[in-house]
Prior knowledge:
The chain is mainly beta. It is built from no helices and twelve strands.
Amino acid sequence: MPPKYIDTKGRTRFALKPKNEIDDIQKILFSVQYQAFAKSYLTVGLWSMPQPTGHGLEITPLIDLSTVRVGDLVEFDVRCHGKPLSKGPNGVAYITAYSSSFGLSDKFALFSYISKGKAQFRVQSSGQWLVNVFHKAPMTKDGAMKEFGDKATSVGYGATLTFNAK
């Protein structure tokens, strides 16, 4: 997201470049470095439990997604840089889930808190499901995105996972 800042003349401004490339900054209001990650799970032959891949933010199923049917409870592991995501000083962590046959056309989704890296929901209809998680944290000099520290004040992540339910 482009930086929003107050310039040296007191005006609120946006810039389409990193904060370290702006000359007339009096105060940065916000500047976000954003990364998005996506996974889709299909089964050919026998299901094998996937392992986390090491993405900045990722959702990994904890059940065999090839057998999911309407009414089943699906559980996920949600990690940010390898650590379980949970509620904390930056807010409440949660996933959302929806399908073209449930929620999408009516502009709503299922919602599940993430606690100690785990979240779950009950499948409401057959078809393809999309699970989302978004996470924002302050940029730190020793954090996972430290190479962007001079370009942004916070880091934002988004991750999605898709699967089919029968």
